[in-house]
Each structure stands twice: as C-alpha cells, then as structure tokens.
Write a structure and sequence with these properties.
single chain, 794 residues, alpha/beta, Rossmann fold, 9-stranded mixed beta sheet, 6-stranded parallel beta sheet, 33 helices, 49% helix, 16% strand, globular, binds ligand Z2T, glycosyltransferase, carbohydrate metabolism, pyridoxal phosphate, Glyco_trans_35
Length: 794
C-alpha cells in the first residue's frame, strides 16, 4: 500500500473524515498515526531483541521531559522526509502547515527537561535498552503572553487535542499509597496507606536514527482507585471515598513552573512519590518476570535520578526489598545503592530540596522510618558525616548522594564545584563517587532537524555520517580558507535570518534587517543568567549611538526569549523592563534599523528551533559558578553562532574546543566572584567607576522607559546598588567592551564566517551520544544491543 492510501485510510477509519472535509488537524493526526505504525515495527523488534539478549536496562527517572513537537523527529529518524513531502503534495496539503499544527509537549521547565529528551533520542540511536519514566501532566509549562509588557500566564492545554504518539496501557496500573500508618509485628513492618491512587501508564515510542532501535517513554497518569473507594463508601466513610478521587485529579494535573527554586509544596512531594513508586514497581515487575534472584537486580537494572526529584526511589526500593522480599535492612541498603545513581543539576541553595520530617512522616510514614535507618547505617559507618536529617528536615541531596553509587555533575567546572561546595564533606568520605558527565545535545534535532540549509551544506561536503558521529564535523575545519565554502556557509545563515525576519513580521509585525548582527539570549529569566546585564548594555549602546549618530555603527538586533516563574517577582520586573526599553528604542528614528529589540512571547522548544539557526551571537553571560552547564550554549555554537560568555558551566569546555580566538570571553571567574563578594560595597564601587553604567541606571531610575510611572524600576535599580548578588555591575564594563570587539569582528564578514564555521566544526564532542556513552560506561555498566551495526561505541 502507498503512504497516500495509508493516510486516506487513517483519515477515514481513525478520524471518520473524508479528504474533502478534513481539517489541518485531521490530516496531521492521520499522518502521525501512519508514522506511528512504522515505528511500532522497530519498537517490537527492539523489545524482542532486548528479551533475547537479557541485557542491563537503563531507567531514566525524570520529573520533566521537555520534548517539543514529535512529528519532525519521527519523520527524520525514520528517514521519510522526501516520501512524506511528496505524498502531501499528492494530497494537496502543505507540509509546513501540518507539521506546525502539532502543539509542543512542554513537560519541562528548561535545561533539565530538555536534557532528558535529548538523552532519550541518544539512548534509542545508540541501541541501549532504556525506559524514560515521568509524569503525563495534563497541563505542561504555562503559556506566556505580554500585557503592557508584563508577563501573563495561562494554562497550557496540549492534551485537549489527541496525542497521536502515545498508547494507553490500562494493563500497566499500580496502586500508589499515601499517608496512613505503619504497624510493626515480630520485626516486620506493615504500611497501611490512608489513601490510594492508581498510576496508569501511557507509552510513547522513541525511535532512534534510521529506525534501527526503539525505546519507550512511559509517563504515568493518576486515576482514582475505584475498588478502594467502593470499600470506604460501603463502610460509610464518604470522605475517604471522595479523597482518592480528588487526589487523583490533582496529582498529574500540572507541571510545577519553578526551575531552580524549590516550592516545598505537599502536592509536589506527592507527584514525586507517585511517579517514582510507579516506576520502581514497574521495573521490578519486568525484572521478576525473567529472574528469580532479587539480589541480582544490580546486574540488570540501572536507575538514573534526574536531580533529587525522584530521590525517594532510594527509600522506596529499600522498602520493597525489606518489607516485601524479606531482605535484611543492612543488605537492602547497599543492594539498592548498586542500582541507583544521581545527577546534580544546580548549586543554587534555593533549589536544593528539603521536606520537613513532619510532612514526610504524614505523607510517607514508612519511608521516613527507612530514611532514619539509612541515616543510622551511614552514621554508624562514618561517624560525624553530613546528615540527611537536619533541623527537622529531610535533605534530599544528601539522601540521593548516600543512596547512589555514582553522583555526577553536568560540566567539568560544575563537578569541581560540587566537590568543593555542596557535597564537600560527603566527597571526602566517598572520594570516587562524584564524577563528571558533561551535558550534550542531540544533533538530530539541533542541527539535522532545525537547520536544513546547513544540514544540506554539510552533508554535500562530508557525507551524512556526522548525524550519528558528530566528531566527523572536524573535517569542515579545512574549509575555513575555502572562499566558495565560506560563501555558501554565509548564505545558509542569511537564509535562516531572512526566514526568522518573515516570522517576526507575521507574528509580531516587526521585520528585521538580515544584515544586522542577530544577538540572541533565550533561556528562563533568572537573575543569575543576567538578562538585565544584556539589557543595560543595550541601553548603553543606544546612548552611544545617539551621541554619535553618524558614526559607522554595526547594526544589531537584540532578541530575548524566556519565561519567569510566576512567583519570581524580580524576574517579572526584568521582563517588563525589557519590553518597556524595547518600546522606546524601537520607536527611535535616530537609531532606526541600527538597533532593535524583539522579545517574542511564549519561548518554547519550537521557538528555539527557529531562533538558534538564525543567530550570529549567543549570549551565555551567567555569573561564573552559577550555571551548572547550559545546553543552549551548545546548540548555538553547533549552528554557527559565536558565543559571548563567561567562564561558567560548559562555556569553559566549549571555549577549549572551539579555541579562545573564536569565543568572546569576558567577566570574573568563579573564584573571583566568590572573592569579590567579600568586599564591602562592591556594587556601588563598580557603578561609581563606570560613567556609562551610571548613566544607564540613572535613565532607568528616572523613568526614561516608563514615563507615566517613573518610579516603576526604583526597586530594580536600588537592588543593583545595594545587593547585586549576581555581580551585574562588576562585569558590566568588561561585557560592554567585549560587545564592541564583537561589533568590530562582525564588520569583516568573511572572517566572522570562518570563526563561526570553526565553531560548528569543533562541536562534535557536545553530542548527547558522547554523553550517553559516558553514562553507560562510567555509571550504568550498560551496553548497546545494536553496537555491531553502529560501529564504535566507546
Ligand atoms: C534546570 O533546568 C536546571 C537545573 C535545575 O536544578 C532545575 C532545572 Cl528545571 C534543580 C538546569 C541548569 O540550570 C542548567 O545549567 C543545566 O544545563 C541543565 O539543568 C541540564 O543539566
């Protein structure tokens, strides 16, 4: 059968529509179902091969999977782009319209969730048998709009449409208990939960490159436990009967919108336990189907904890081993540890999860007992070591560390800081436990998929092997002196910039000059990421341009994108200031097209795929020591943008790979930052030493950008004078000067393009395939089942 007939059949039999009456949505779902059928073949074959090989399986537990759209992944990984395009032409449908109709699966806040999605793509491409486990949130990250420049949040509703990629698994249901009490009889513990909800599995196949391997992303949805309710109901306990239904309705309802700030809410703890417990039960059931010795579990199961959110996995696994398999506590703890590993994603103290013992005891009484046993065992072995239980709190970082056989940081610098700061004492006791695995990005989405013009140029030059072996890009380095190639490389970037300009024109009514430097900062809005410093530099540049309007300025477009956590008021003020400044500068006829600011609302994965290929300059300007890694930084450099950045996170390693001459470095180092904070009045001193900064702060404080509400930004400016914890003021001059060096470099287009090309050609190491091979080798002891086909995996 042809793909055309397949699609028409799906339209007819799955959607009940004929071609005459089908909407874009109908066509999109019909096409998705046809593609899903293809994936199922790979998926079944992989499942069979996994059972036959009985290898170690990897379980990636993550509260977030920031997937974005799936349709283009499916089309390109199945190598069906040409076929789909041709078929849609036959059917009189527009490919782009259909592809863009899919809503983003925005089940994550930022880097941590996107990393999990890149890892799923690499695990499948490498043929490593793996499951991703998470929550099937009914509402993903909120949608952002601006009203008079201020962020407005509204609920995200991706599941009001049919999610064509998933399969509901009513047979994979588990009862998840909460609360109640624990009885002890003859040395055994019996937990009697006070409420129960059901976890139902929804599976999305994740197919790797070429359709060679397929894994599963299994997301849990909460459902009322009906039989339990009926029992309470019959007992006349009407409140208990309703409770499980109410809990079930809320538990998988919505993603918490905080990235690196902890909310400490009871519902959040319930979400964490809900998906962790379901995942552990599920993987144990799978294991016990083919194995009878529970003590061999670590030979077949590797569980990765994506930050501390699933750290309750430690006590949960111990609970099952002790209470259900009668393994003694002192044996159960090290057995569980052999299965578990923990990735730390931040050093920010406000992000480190702690739950009050009181809350933990109320929601998970048996787990609190087990946490005390874990604490006791560790203190007995290492007297005086850091405690899990401190000041009436359960510290999840310490719990995760103590229950993991490996703990990893996400960049070289971050890993050093993990050893020196948050886990310094635990590191002394367990000196081989902390290791580094620098983050990576999938080249399938972040070059092949998002940047077709560069993809074609590269493939025409070096063949297609780079898609699964990104280090092959180094072959492009020799092209830096090839004028024809440089011209083609420049033309590809220009095409992407023109496309972006069309999009901003259509969506925001602003067109951009494709000859201007496109300078992009897209990420969550956070003080440590210093969008404010970028904006202050923009205002300073504007002042200089107006002072000297006839000078030969390098035209710039400043592009911002990102959401603020709804309760993070300083971040929301920064958003409002960006929009207020944009309104004034964009209306200025003196500077005109030489300086523009655009801030498209509702930044998400799909928007990143549009903006990154069109960027000339990538803003990676966090206060040194604060950005654990960054992964956007990698996406930009891979797509031929130059970075302006600090020595923070993975910037350090990016600079080493691309060469310091192809990277705009500025600012204090992590050590200097810590040192500077000990100087009394460092911010005021920095401002007094910088007339340019003084002038900008004066303008903002006077209401230049909010004439009808001149005191609007007094708080923000006052904060810079008095606290400035993130050293915006101290790094400002160095940042401004480095921006002017970028201006100068941009005026030599051939040289700029050569530098950009070296960036692209040097980014092979940042493939998430490399990262996953590192985890497989150093943490999981897992292997590729398809490695014969893929060649080297080491
Ligand atoms: C997050 O995206 C990150 C860290 C978090 O700490 C939480 C969230 Cl939601 C709890 C980010 C880091 O900020 C970023 O530097 C890093 O690249 C990313 O995780 C992936 O490791």
């Amino acid at each position: 059968m042809t793909m055309k007939t397949d699609i028409l059949n799906r339209l007819k039999y799955s959607l009940g529509k004929d071609a005459e009456n089908a909407s874009t949505y109908d066509w999109r779902i019909a096409l998705s179902l046809v593609l899903r059928d293809q994936m199922v073949e790979t998926w079944f074959r992989s499942t069979k091969e996994t059972y036959a090989a009985s290898p170690k399986r990897v379980y990636y537990l993550s509260m977030e999977f920031l997937i974005g759209r799936l349709i283009e992944d499916m089309i390109s990984n199945l190598r069906m782009e040409e076929k789909v395009k041709a078929t849609l032409v036959e059917l009189g449908q527009d490919y782009d319209t259909i592809v863009h109709d899919e809503p983003d699966a925005a089940l994550g806040n930022g880097g941590l969730g996107r990393l999990a999605a890149c890892f799923m793509d690499s695990l499948a491409t490498l043929g490593i048998p793996a499951f991703g486990y998470g929550i099937r949130y009914e509402h993903g990250l909120f949608e952002q709009s601006f009203a008079q420049g201020q962020q407005v949040e509204k609920p995200e509703t991706w599941l009001t449409q049919r999610h064509a990629w998933e399969f509901e698994r009513p047979e994979s249901q588990y009862r998840i208990g909460f609360g109640g009490h624990v009885d002890h009889h003859e040395g055994k513990a019996y937990w009697h939960p006070g409420e129960v909800v059901m976890a139902t599995a929804y599976d999305t196949p994740v197919v790797g490159w070429n359709g060679d391997w397929g894994n599963t992303l299994r997301l849990w949805s909460a459902q009322p436990a009906k039989e339990f309710d009926l029992e309470s109901f019959n007992r006349g306990d009407y409140l208990a009967a309703g409770r499980s239904e109410a809990l079930a309705r809320t538990i998988s309802r919505v993603l918490y919108p905080d990235d690196t700030t902890e909310s400490g809410k009871e519902l959040r703890l319930k979400q964490e336990y809900f998906f962790t417990a379901a995942s552990i039960m599920d993987l144990l059931r799978r294991y016990l189907k083919d194995h009878d010795d529970i003590r061999a579990l670590p030979d077949y199961v590797a569980i990765q904890l994506n930050d501390t959110h699933p750290a309750i996995a430690g006590p949960e696994l111990v609970r099952i081993l002790v209470d259900e398999h009668d393994i003694p506590m002192d044996e159960a703890i090290p057995l569980a540890r052999k299965c578990l590993a923990y990735t730390n994603h931040t050093l920010l103290p406000e992000a480190l999860e702690r739950w009050s013992e009181h809350l933990m005891g109320r929601i998970l009484p048996r787990h609190l007992e087990i946490i005390r046993a874990i604490e006791h065992a560790h203190q007995t072995e290492f007297p005086g070591s850091p405690r899990i239980l401190e000041n009436g709190d359960v510290r999840m970082g310490e719990l995760a560390f103590i229950m993991a056989h490996k703990v990893n940081g996400v960049s070289a610098l971050h890993t050093d800081l993990v050893k020196e700061t948050v886990f310094a004492d635990l590191h002394r006791i367990h000196p081989t436990r902390i290791i580094n695995q620098t983050n990576g990005i999938t080249p399938r989405r972040w070059l092949y998929g998002c940047n077709p013009s560069l993809r074609h140029l590269i493939t025409d030059t070096i063949g297609e092997g780079w898609v699964t072996d990104l280090e092959q890009l180094t072959a492009l380095k020799s092209k830096r002196d090839d004028a024809a190639f440089i011209e083609a490389f420049t033309a590809s970037k220009r095409e992407n910039k023109a496309n972006l300009s069309n999009w901003t024109l259509q969506t925001m009514g602003v067109s951009l000059d494709p000859d201007a430097m496109f300078d992009v900062q897209i990420k969550r809005i956070h003080e440590y990421k210093r969008q404010l410093m970028n904006l202050l530099e923009t205002v300073a540049l504007w002042n200089d341009m107006r002072d000297n309007p006839n000078a030969d300025w390098t035209p710039r477009v400043k592009i911002f994108g990102g959401k603020a956590a709804p309760g993070y008021f300083v971040a929301k003020d920064i958003i409002r200031l960006i929009n207020d400044v944009a309104a004034v500068i964009n209306a200025d006829e003196v500077t005109g097209d030489k300086l523009k600011i655009v801030y498209p609302p509702n930044y998400n994965v799909t928007m990143a795929e549009r903006l990154i290929p069109a960027a000339d300059l990538s803003e990676q300007i966090s206060t040194a020591g604060k950005e654990a890694s960054g992964t956007g930084n990698m996406k930009f450099a891979l797509n031929g943008a130059l970075t302006i950045g600090t020595l923070d996170g993975a910037n350090v390693e990016i600079r080493e790979h691309v060469g310091s001459e192809n990277f705009f470095l500025f600012g204090l180092t992590a050590q200097e930052v810590m040192e500077r904070r000990t100087h009394h009045g460092y911010a005021r001193a920095a401002i007094e030493a910088s007339p340019r900064l003084q002038r900008v702060l004066g303008q903002i404080a006077e209401g230049r950008f909010a004439p009808h509400d001149p005191s609007r930004y007094h708080g923000l400016v006052g904060m810079l004078y008095d606290h400035d914890y993130f050293l915006v003021t101290c790094d400002f001059d160095s940042y401004f000067d480095t921006q002017r060096r970028a201006d100068t470099a941009y005026r030599n287009p051939a040289n700029w393009a050569a530098m950009a090309l070296v960036n692209t050609a040097s980014m092979g190491w940042f493939s998430s395939d490399r990262t996953i091979k590192g985890y497989a080798r150093d943490i999981w002891g897992a292997e590729s089942v398809t490695k014969a086909k893929l060649g080297k995996t080491a």
